[in-house]
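cron nightly-structures :: item 1 of 1
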Amino acid sequence: SSQSGSSLSESELERPVTEIEILEVAKAAGTKWSEIAVYLGLKDSDLKDYEMKHPASLFERLREVLTAWMKKEETATVGMLLAACRRADIEGAAKKALQEHRNARQ
C-alpha cells in the first residue's frame, strides 16, 4: 500500500520513537513544549528545572523533556508522542515534521 502524504500507518505509530524524531517534534512544538511535557507525564517541578536549565531555548527544553520521556517510558512510540502533540494542538505540525523526516530518508 502506498503511503499518502498525510497519514502515518499503524505500524509507524506503534514503533519506538527515535532520537531524530524527537528533534523534529521539538523543532515543531515551540511554545507548546510545557503542555506536551505535562501530557507525557512530567511534573511541574520537572518543568521548572528545564526552564531554569534552558532559559532562552524552548527547543532545548522540549528536546530534554522528550529524551527523558523516551528513556523512562520503555514503550515510547511515535503514536504516544503524537497523542501528546494532539492534546497540545500541534499534531499537524508534528506529523508534518515526522513525514518530512521519513520522506527524506526514503
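cron nightly-structures :: done
Residues 24 and 97 are 6 Å apart (CA to CA).
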